[in-house]
Write a structure and sequence with these properties.
Blueprint: H1 25-66, H2 71-219, E1 222-228, E2 246-247, E3 255-259, E4 280-284, E5 287-289, H3 295-310, E6 314-321, H4 327-332, H5 344-360, E7 364-376, E8 379-382, E9 395-398, E10 405-408, E11 414-416, H6 419-439, E12 448-459, E13 465-474, H7 481-484, H8 489-512, H9 524-528, H10 530-533, E14 537-545, H11 552-566
Parallel strand pairs: 1-5, 1-14, 6-13, 6-14
Antiparallel strand pairs: 2-3, 3-4, 7-8, 7-11, 7-12, 9-10, 12-13
Domain Kinesin motor: 221-568
Family: Belongs to the TRAFAC class myosin-kinesin ATPase superfamily. Kinesin family. KIN-14 subfamily.
Protein name: Kinesin-like protein
Amino acid sequence: SKKPPVASTVPKAAGNKAKRPAWDLKGRLQDMEELLNRQSSKRDSLESQLQDYNSRIASLESEKNQLYGDVQSKEQIVHGASKQIEEYQKQIREQEANFEQTKRKLQTELDSITFLKESIQRQKESLEGEVSAKTVEVAGLKSTVAELQTSQVVIAAQLDATKISLEQSVSAGREKDKEISELKQMVAAMQDTIEKYKIKEQEHETMRRKLHNTIQELKGNIRVFCRVRPLLGEELLGSDGTINHMAFPDADSKMLELEKMSDAGLNESCLTANRKGNNKYEFAFDKVFNPDSTQGQVFEEICQLVQSALDGYNVCIFAYGQTGSGKTFTMEGPSQFSPEQTGMIPRAVVQIFESTQDLISKGWQYEFEASFLEIYNETIRDLLGNNSDDQKHDIKMTGSADKKDVMVTNLTTVMVTSEDQVHELLRKASHNRAVAETKCNERSSRSHSVFRLKISGVNKHTQEACIGTLNLVDLAGSERLKDSGSEGARLKETQAINKSLSTLSKVIMAIANKDGYIPYRESKLTYLLQNSLGGNSKTLMFVNVSPKEECFQETLNSLRFATKVNQCNIGTAQKKAK
């Protein structure tokens, strides 16, 4: 029998249709459905052919049995049929694989198209919302345009009015420019006048300094103030607070009278010229402060001397008198702070910094260097240091022959910028000195304390420079050795104090007499203060006296020493320049 024709396994291509565009999703979906249907039809056709082939195989098997005799021929037919069957099965497997691949590809494209469709739907809804908003916005813009058109007409009218106003303003501006030009000329002239006034102000400041220091020189280089403290505590018992043996007879507060109320064993051989009768003694000083005088009244008399330190002079203010006469109170104030009773040292610091602020506007710039020490038994102790007994302090001269300066080795010096900083140093020094009192038997009253403030100034406008030193000294109590009843350590203290005070008296007398040799080195006190005691300094001594009648002899001795000092003329002080 003849072999049936072999069906072609290559699917016919779809009709020659043009490729649809990417946005035609519905058309592409229809094409894919048609392709899927054609593939399904081809599969059914192949399955039908397979069934036909199976029937033919059965028929061929029957013919084989019938034509067994023709084995060779039948085997060839069977062999050929088997090959065809294998080929058909292979084609079926390939078609099934192609079908599954095409199905998966189409499914993927379908999912992508579905997702794209949903995205487009969402975009459509969003765009519809935007269109609605834009429609409302357009309606508002149309209304705004109508309003702007109306405003344009108004603005045009205003513009015309503005043009007219501008023309008027331009005309007025020309007049203003002319006025401004005239004012600039006036300002330039005023600036020239201001510069002239500034130069005059600097000249006036220089003249003020000269006149101020001339006045201080006319008052005397060594000035002596006497201060009598009031009766205190138990001293008031048996009296109404009146000091019967003292009198202040003159209205100018320059005289003090002492009257001997009982036998005090006075030494009548010394300075009897100031006796006024058998039992009265009269003393005259630059100023006498009675017991009712306040710290403020006292400082008012010395504030001009403090100003001289800012002007470049060495200034020394020291308090002299017996123990308990009020020296420390005058110089430092009470142990418990009281604004009304503040001493001369803190008041001087306040004045210096206040004056500095006024001088800054005139071009002056200052630096301040502070130190505080005490001299006990001819030994120097640093009151701002750490109280180390191992530190040795010696006095040395530094600088050239015409600009010698005194310095103390290993002494703590502090650069200060405010009065609060200085007050803190004073509190520290007072604390260190108070500690020494408890250890050394009232050592503070048995030692000399010296507060030094070195002042360096320069004027940035005139390049004028100056250096001044303010020495504020609280001397130890002066007592005659035979009257003090001192023994042991107190005897040594009294001898050292009397020696230093005696040397101070010798130095002042030697300077007043213009001696060739001045015994500065005989005492640590005078050696330290030599630049503030000589002819290039201004010196003030407070003689503090006790109001107690039993202290009459010591009071008389103190006043006689102060009288000697007050009679000295040590020459004209010289300003120190850098």
